[in-house]
Amino acid sequence: MDGDDETSGPMIDEFYANGGADDGDKRSRRAIMSGDQLDVEAYAALYSGRTKIMRLIFIADKMNNATTQLEALRMAYDEIKKGENTQLFREVVQKIDGRLGASYGMDTAWCEAVDRRAEQKKEKLENELNAYRTNLIKESIRMGYNDFGDFYYAHGQLGEAFKSYVRTRDYCTTSKHIIHMCMSAILVSIEMGQFPHVTSYVSKAEQALDVHDSIIVAKLRCAAGLANLEAKKYKLAARKFLETGPELGSHYNDVIAPQDVATYGGLCALATFDRAELKAIIDNSNFRNFLELVPEVRELINDFYSSHYASCLEYLGNLKANLLLDIHLHDHVETLYDQIRHKALIQYTHPFVSVDLNMMANAFKTTVAGLEKELEALITDNQIQARIDSHNKILYARHADQRNATFQRVLETGREFDRDVRSMLLRSNLIKHDYNLRALRKL
Amino acid sequence: MDPLEALVAQIQGLSSTSSDVNRLHSILKQADDLLRSKSTRLPPLLTQLDPSIHSLGFLYILDAYMTSPITKTQAETAVPIATRFIVACSDQIRLAPEKFLSVCRRLKDQVMLLETPIRGVAPLFTALRKVQVSAEHLTPLHSEFLLLCLLSKCYKTGLSILDDDVFEVNHPRDFFLYCYYGGMICIGMKCFQKALDLLHNVVTAPMSVINAIAVEAYKKYILVSLIRNGQFSTSLPKYSSSAAQRNLKNFCQPYVELANTYGNGKIAELEAFVKTNEEKFESDSNLGLVKQAVSSMYKRNIQRLTQTYLTLSLQDIANTVQLNSPKEAEMHVLQMIQDGEIYATINQKDGMVRFLEDPEQYKTCEMIEHIDSSIQRIMALSRKLTAMDEQISCDQLYLSKAGRERQRYDFDDFDVPQKFNI
């Protein structure tokens, strides 16, 4: 368990091996988020649109299990065929590399047809837009640009799509238009990985929001949460995910599934919230709806809160392999896991004057030596105020003597002041001297 | 009558009252060239004069004598004369401080020529006290004196003048050298904090161009701050001159890299780095200090352990700190307990070290006295600071400059620069 948190790449393989061995057992516990051997299909069903394809491709890239990899690629292939993105199509075909038989090979005819159609459509759109612009009909120009955005988005030219969507801004007349523009921009930015844009468009949309459309609000919270997650502001991310209303449902499944909200929010919260805030999560009826979708995360939070660290860490360990396959979370898994583990250690030691390391090691399913190392790091960071009796394997809480500390600080400050003033006086004298010298030279 | 004879007679006659001495001074000034041209005939004249009564005359003749180029044997005779003079001379020398300084410098040169720098330590110390107006003044002799102390390894004697708080400086070069040599003496005495302060003064002193003293001082500053604080930040405080901020680092590249390597906390890396750059450190004659910095890292790591552990076996200490054997760890811990750097007891039976808290309770009379004296000292310093501030804000040059630099005057300030420029 200890190793899981520190290692990244090579450990994953082992996890697959484990997963294979007790597959049945795990499958029963993990519904959707647990998907190494299983349900790429169930996973993919949660999403729609471009993100589905991207997530599948991402899983295929990260997987070293050939069957699942091909499974993911096959579904991505099918999905792309429904759309018009030939660029992505070629990439996927290259990745499949003929391993799925002739029916999943390069379909040049399809590509050409799509490309030709795209050319024609583009021309048509351009003509229309030009016509609108000469007539100066605001609403039509907006529609024209919007269509262009949709067109580029469908064909995978995200940069162009973003520009087109943003251009509609000047022609927005109602707040609804503005929100539409913002939502499109956010969608494209998320796909591009430009999360600073996401943040700014979320705040723009929030300003324009006058009618309370709870679905839009929920979507915006999710987008903001994602942006904060990517910016490593985990606490803010957790807040945003927690604020997400249950109305979200599967309305935003071209970006995020409600299961993801629970997982992202839950993990970020565990890593950054204190006990009182965690309690609030458990009692939060809104978020509970999400947690019901991913029972592991719910159990995880409950375990953490009721200090069953061993089972909590076990859940985390089981989830890890799948979280690493998540397109948004994979980068942050290690950090979040480390933080959660540190918090667990800190919380465990907090109420005690002395802690038997053997028992603590048991509770965390690790060795005493490993635990000692972890504790040492935390003490050095001043996160735990305690000292280790390595002979008897006991951790003693340390109570800082305020009086002595104050004396020490006072003396130190006095010394510093003394030194600073003296060197200041000296410097000013030197400067004075230099100035006088120059003045003399002038005379 | 021989002009020199006449001069001696005048000296003998005009050495009692202050008006006479002033007259003598002008006579001597005119006779200076004459004295210099006949420098070989001077030693016999000196025997006719008493250095304590005829100090001024003695000084002029001695200076003329010592200024001439000199061989080792001549130096052998000149050094005792000069020493005797410095010890005996009276206040008259204050009339011709330049001459006196030059005599002292010659003395320093000659003892160095004789390769017996220790002979100059005592006389220069006396001379320094005689020239000094107050203990706060830095004289040009300070640096010469410290140099001799360094060369003769009389660090303790040198330390005695470093305890004075120096505020008044006449020449920046004296100041730079004073602090640099002073820093080296403190390093020799292992007073690293004081050394750090002194070197800090050099590095942050106002300078318009970089100078060699500052560069050398910066190198030592890096090493000493590693030894003393276990860390070094390359950014200088913002009050240091821009020349120093911009250039010092470039001249001390290996040292800055050493500090970076030190910061990583890996003994092996540090030692490898020192090994590859040994020549550079050697040629700067800083190798000893570098080695001290390396060994300070062990101490630093052991000290860190005291923060985290109550008891720890010697074996574990050796492993964590990357020492070869528990025996070696024991030596280090023992040494540190002796130096008062950590508080611990070693149980040799089972090889455990028990770390204790700092026993200082801040309750003793000595501690109260110590705190009280610190308060007094700081109050005195604050008063000085206020006085200085007042003095500067009344300074004509400062006001006219401040007035010039401010493009638009406040209405209230409007007449200030003009009033002072008249």
TrEMBL record, chain A:
Xref: SMART domains: PINT
Region (Disordered): 1-27
Taxonomic source organism: Vigna unguiculata
Gene3D superfamilies noted in UniProt: 1.25.40.570
PANTHER family: 26S PROTESOME SUBUNIT 6, COP9 SIGNALOSOME COMPLEX SUBUNIT 1
Pfam families for this protein: CSN1_C, PCI, RPN7
Family: Belongs to the CSN1 family.
Record-annotated PCI domain positions: 233-402
GO cellular component: COP9 signalosome; cytoplasm
Protein name: COP9 signalosome complex subunit 1
Record carries keyword Protease: no
Coiled coil: 111-142
Keyword set includes Lyase: no
Alphabetically ordered keywords of this record: Coiled coil, Cytoplasm, Nucleus, Signalosome
Compartmental location: Cytoplasm; Nucleus
InterPro entries: CSN1_C, PCI_dom, Rpn7/CSN1, Rpn7_N, WH_DNA-bd_sf
UniProtKB/TrEMBL annotation, chain B:
Keywords: Cytoplasm, Nucleus, Signalosome
Domain PCI: 191-360
Mitochondrion keyword on record: no
One of the GO biological process terms: ubiquitin-dependent protein catabolic process
Source species, domain of life: Eukaryota
GO CC entries: COP9 signalosome; cytoplasm
Location of this chain's protein in the cell: Cytoplasm; Nucleus
InterPro entries membership: COP9_N, CSN3, PCI_dom, WH_DNA-bd_sf
UniProt similarity note: Belongs to the CSN3 family.
Protein name: COP9 signalosome complex subunit 3
Phylogenetic lineage: Eukaryota, Viridiplantae, Streptophyta, Embryophyta, Tracheophyta
